[in-house]
Design a protein that fits this description.
Chains A, B, C, D: This is Transglutaminase family protein. The structure is a homotetramer. By secondary structure, chain A is an alpha+beta fold. Chain A folds into two domains: about 110 residues, Immunoglobulin-like, CATH 2.60.40; about 160 residues, C8orf32 fold. The first copy, chain A, is about 15% helix and about 35% strand. In chain A, strands 1, 2, 3, 4, 12, 13 and 14 form a seven-stranded antiparallel beta sheet that branches. In chain A, strands 5-15-10-9-8-11 form a six-stranded antiparallel beta sheet. The longest helix of chain A has 14 residues. The two termini of chain A are about 15 Å apart. Chains in contact: A-B, A-D, B-C, C-D.
Chain lengths: ~290, ~290, ~290, ~290
């Protein structure tokens, strides 16, 4: 088990008389992820509408803020107890046997044009033995054929762009891996997290996009950008791609500062709580 | 009330040893749409897995077919009793008041890149009075700025392509209208139907894509292509865009014939069942 | 007549052992633009290969620089004596009568996908009376439907992107206007210049992309971004689009600083040299 | 030496009162390609304006046809005497040493977005030894990673699309190879020809797009689609990409039939004229 302290500070200036915010910043609560303590700090007098998705565990905050400064902070201590599995045991599930609620993760989505990548995916990975090994080969392909380059892409960049331009940040790596898996009829989706373990030379801690793949009737997590330590990934949101799980969807004219993110391990040898470490095993966080 | 006879015949040749099909061809059952009678004709011995979405009413058929010919036919008689409303009474709902289950229809999707159309939508429609009139103005804009041209687009064409190329078929009109509405924070989605009322000079009856817009806490239906008589629209599927509701998603090597679709009104003066006609009113089919 | 002082300082750090540069920064010499004096300052010992295009008047500098800092400065005093013409007199030339050397400016190019904009251009401008008025209407359409927004686009952005996203900088305005004109069989190309007259609140002086249109067997200049005073435009390069006339094409790993540009009018009342001013007339610089 | 009989029949119906045509269908005349005999058959009374590009040898026909049927036929007997060279001897020319007239073939163009493929080309081919072997490796990569599939693309498809979708016809193979070469600073352009040697199962003879690469101060020809016998390629047009050398650019409403193309070898053992055959050598047709 691992324990992480996570905090995020959001800072905005609302330019319109009112602006609406949909935030997805709180740690998800799942069978393998427990919020030990948490605190949401909002300006006094601001009402918040809360909603938690019963299937995906996304915790949505909806709020309406008046003109002026808006500062929001969320602090949490979270225990994660990822399930580790031997990759050799994990199998792709034929379409005929997929649960109905998994089928949407086969379809193309805003940033994952799997329909355009069928020929490519089939040529490159179609002949491989099915299972975790094939999924891992896709992850390796993406990691080895795309260069991590801050600010080389923007919020409109999709998997098709990344196949052409071969540069991007974590979400671009994730979108491309998701699109390739779906093109092979392997259900794939995105999880938003924090970049635990990322080299600090790459910049301050930040939100981080990773991939979930459905194998052996479980969702398994992979980071095709390779910048994080996956056992330290703390789930915030889950969706088809980045269009489903922005940390902040904003409606109205707003000036945004970059979010300030903190993530650190809290070890406690006596309680058997150590540091997240790399593992060759497949990781499931459900 | 209207009564329609609808039938579709699908014909495939499976080239692989096995192929999986996800079909969405059966008439939806809703408070305003009743299946009077229906029959699904499949090859003997073929198992079908059925699923009906509790919210969207999509009826999914999943089947696995062996190599060789596959013929599927669905026949139905369906009563539709669309709700007609005076457009003046319909209001856009602020994001702060939208039901949580409607929020996904604000996000961009595979074929509706609303994130790229924000400036355009805002310039063209941002200053208009909110409500059905604005939505109808968007519908008119799309109809007047895009040319209906068979085979000018393909299954990869998106709203962004249509803004540039200004030609397309019903699904392209629908994707563009959906994208423009979402860019203005108006929830919008696609419904698949039959092109009841389409000029037979445009070809045989076919599946038809139309738009649903969320106003005054109801989904209202519009056909931006203008080729159908909306009061005669029979709901088959409902989703974010065409990626969610293909009439057939096929996994495996399959040669497909064009589906043969039949749609005709069954009138019964004694029972008060007439022909679908054009109406200036807003139409809701829920 | 107007006289302008123009200077540009380029500053690079070559990271490879050697890097090649193709520069197009010197003022063109044409019948209506005379270089009064000029000076190119290069590091000692650096050889330069010079080439002037006999038709387009582009002056190309080719040089190979070793690892390390590279500073280049060009200073010039230039007289421009633009030809002003009453727009009413300018006619579009039918394809059958265009000089052969003008025909390439009808074809689509890297950033001007006129082939994708045929339907749009034809709908929007096809019915207008031909001539300068139509060209000016296209210029006005672009200026009124695109928002000038620094850093909203990049060097990969094309006219098709701008039709969708409706934001950009001068080159995006120019590419869109060029593409629309070509879609109507009006020859159009790009000229690189300096943004004389631009509001200093928009930033330091900079290179500036404008449009040339072939009318009445002359090339006429328009600035669809509207940020410059066209009578003050000093020609540097001329080509199909930005792909033909980068101020610097660089081959090798190089770190680039932003070019420092100076442009100012030199008035001399005694010699009849005043300030460039706005004119309702059509402007030709050949 | 080889001798080929080439003929093309074009058939149109002009719907407007008048339509303009720019045709590029006549065999080029170069040092290595001699027109033995030729005949252009036009409707009586139709004037033709002719132009031959002094550098590229493109022969342009410009004509204006009135409403109604328009039939054009061109017949030629052409001798080609391609230069064969040992690929090992061919070297890439550094940018610093390229003739000025070759520099435009380094820039991106409508269908060859080399600027977007820099990272990809550099990763895949950047480390290879420079020269014909690298160029041939790019040709092999394109041939092995793209599937030849009639009607899978259209006249708007570009190299960036082909990198994503991996299907296409000859012009798509050519555009991708050109873009990859330019991304590595190797001058590359397109030549239009006839698909001599193509398997008749792929359809009737047709125009064919191939690639020219500048090596050792010569242009060398490669067919990345692999469907032709390159020693039998008869040059029609030469340009940056397909935008420069359509066999017919049409201005006005016209209904077009598919061009009927004939190409066959004329052997004459006594004169030493045999059949074009495959060769492992590099081929130059200038």
């Amino acid at each position: 088990m691992n324990r992480l302290r996570y905090a995020v500070s959001l800072s905005y200036e609302v330019l319109d008389p009112m602006a609406d915010f949909l935030l997805n910043i709180e740690a998800a609560c799942t069978a393998r992820q427990t919020v030990v303590s948490e605190q949401l700090t909002l300006p006094p007098g601001l009402d918040v509408d809360r909603y938690t998705d019963p299937v995906l565990a996304n915790r949505l905050l909806r709020l309406r803020a008046p003109q002026g400064r808006l500062a929001i902070r969320y602090d949490a201590v979270v225990d994660i107890d990822h399930h580790l599995e031997d990759g050799d045991k994990l199998e792709e599930i034929p379409v005929a046997e997929l649960p109905v609620e998994v089928l949407p993760y086969l379809a193309p989505s805003r940033y994952c044009e799997s329909d355009r990548l069928m020929e490519f995916a089939s040529r490159e990975f179609g002949g491989m033995q099915r299972g975790y090994a094939r999924v891992y080969a896709i992850r390796e392909w993406v990691r080895n054929h795309v260069r991590f380059l801050s600010r080389s892409t923007n919020e409109r960049t999709s998997a098709a762009d990344t196949v052409v331009e071969r540069t991007g940040v974590c979400r671009d790596f994730a979108h491309l891996m998701i699109a390739l898996c779906r093109a092979l009829s392997i259900p794939a989706r995105m999880s938003s997290s924090l970049d635990y373990g990322a080299d600090i030379r790459m910049g301050a801690p930040d939100f981080h996009a990773v991939v979930e793949i459905y194998l052996s009737h479980q969702w398994y997590l992979l980071d095709p950008s390779g910048i994080s330590i996956p056992t330290g990934l703390l789930r915030i949101g889950t969706g088809r791609d980045a269009a489903d799980i922005p940390f902040a969807a904003i409606f109205g004219q707003v000036r945004s500062d970059r979010p300030l993110v903190e993530i650190e391990p809290l070890t406690d040898a006596a309680a058997g709580i150590g540091m997240p470490v790399f593992t060759p095993k497949a990781i499931s966080t459900w």
